[in-house]
Amino acid sequence: MKRIDIKKSAQFTPPAPLDGLFLPDLCNIRILLLVIVIAEMLSFILTLAGSPAGQGWQDLGLISLFVQWVALISVLLLCLSRPWLAKFKNQQAGFISFFIINLVTLFVTELSFNYVVIAEVERSTAGHIDLLLRNLGISVIVSLLTLRYFYLQYQSSKSVLAENTSRIEALQARIRPHFLFNSMNIIASLTRSNPKLAEQAVENLAQVFRASLSDIKKQISLQEEISICKSYLKIEALRLGERLKVDWQIDSDVEKDMIPPLLLQPLIENAVTHGIEPLKQGGAVFIRARHNDENSMLEIQVVNPCDDTNDQCKPSNKGNQIALKNINQRLEALYEGESHLYINKEDKQYTATISIPIHMLSEEA
After folding, report:
1. Is the pLDDT of residue 100 over 60?
2. For residue range 288-324, what is the model confidence (pLDDT) as tens digits?
3. Domain 174-360 falls in which CATH fold?
4. What is the pLDDT of residue 295?
5. Averaged confidence pLDDT in the chain
6. What is the band of 103 on the pLDDT scale with cuts at 50, 70, 90?
7. Strands 283-292 and 244-250
8. pLDDT tens sequence across 255-296
9. Count of alpha carbons within 13 angstroms of residue 234, beta-carbon side
10. What's the pLDDT score for residue 14?
11. Is the distance from CB of 12 to CB of 337 less than 8 angstroms?
12. Where are the domains of the chain?
């Protein structure tokens, strides 16, 4: 079996937050774990900087406890205040976040000075002020660098999102010219011989076009996408006749899953154009959709026959790779790099499989 994973060569950048705030989602468990790891690394750096010749490693636990408390309390406050911060401009939100982090540092420093015995810290007013200034100075530098990094990452994410949006719009608005020409020719030929069938073909074509012009950020149910695909297949059936057969194998529990429009239709069009049409005897297109409980994925498959007469099954074929790569780029852009398109070529069958994490099948793109 030959399995091809069509992926982007460029590294994926997480999309910019939907609320416009430059801070990442600090309520996310992955971000929280990252903060803990970075805070611990900072603890080691502070220990090394304050412990010449390897002395003072006994303070690592206290320093680590101090840094972790500052980091976790700051993350908690920024997480809870995010809806409020999102109301401000990013510059203002950055200043408020900077103030919160350093205020937390002063608060934890006060607790440490009054309730924790810290080596080499004089219990006096001078020692108290020295500890406050030192911790505040470190906090100012670290918080400025961190917030600056978040802002630059946010700007980069906005740029990538804008580029991906343009690419998705171009892909979604693109309808193969030969499909349009063939459809119009079929409609023209039916206008006199079978006006009712010609009217149905116009309605089917209109539904496909309507989907291609829909909002890219608005998702539709898989059931609606299937309805669009059936409209497309009815038009192709007028041209291919008995040579085109379709077998739908859709589990009932996946029909309400929300996906981007025109995600399945291009794969079916690829199966008809490159799989069925070149075969004199035609063939059947199998369309399957199910929840894979083993990896918590929605799996959508389009299977069509192919042989050596099809360019689709030739090892050196590159004819439809651009379109497939575009579909995969669209998946990665919309699902944060967790969704992919896979191609299998085995036993004179061509299988295209889309895998989407079930937890990401929501109404928001």
Report:
1. yes
2. 999 988 888 999 999 999 876 666 666 545 545 666 7
3. Heat Shock Protein 90 (3.30.565)
4. 82
5. 79
6. very high
7. parallel
8. 888 888 878 888 898 898 888 888 888 899 999 999 988 888
9. 19
10. 45
11. yes
12. 29-170, 174-360
Q: Evaluate if pTM is beyond 0.85.
A: no
Long-range contacts of 329-332 (CB under 8 A, 24+ apart): 329/8, 329/164, 329/167, 330/164, 330/167, 330/168, 330/171, 330/260, 330/263, 331/263, 331/356, 332/7, 332/8, 332/12
What is the rounded distance in angstroms from the CA atom of residue 82 to the CA atom of residue 361?
24
d(CA 132, CA 253): 59
pLDDT attached to residue 28: 83
Residues paired with residue 3 on neighbouring β-strands, in sequence order? 344
Amino acid at 336: E
One-letter-per-residue 3-state SS of the chain: CEEEEECCCCCCCCCCCCCCCCCCCCCCHHHHHHHHHHHHHHHHHHHHHHCHHHCCHHHHHHHHHHHHHHHHHHHHHHHHCHHHHCCCCHHHHHHHHHHHHHHHHHHHHHHHHHHCCCCCCCCCHHHHHHHHHHHHHHHHHHHHHHHHHHHHHHHHHHHHHHHHHHHHHHHHHCCCHHHHHHHHHHHHHHHHHCHHHHHHHHHHHHHHHHHHCCCCCECEEHHHHHHHHHHHHHHHHHHHHHHEEEEEEECHHHCCCEECCCCCHHHHHHHHHHHHCCCCCCEEEEEEEEEECCCCEEEEEEEEECCCCCHHHCCCCCCCHHHHHHHHHHHHHHCCCCCEEEEEEECCEEEEEEEEEHHHCCCEC
Which range, of 67-71, 81-85, 117-121, 279-283, averages the lowest pLDDT?
A: 117-121
Q: Are 150 and 93 in contact (CB under 8 A)?
A: no
Per residue in 220-232, pLDDT tens? 899 999 998 998 8
β-pairing verdict for 258-259 and 283-292: unpaired
**Measured between alpha carbons, how far is residue 224 from residues 227, 230, 270, 357, 359 in Å?**
5, 10, 20, 19, 20
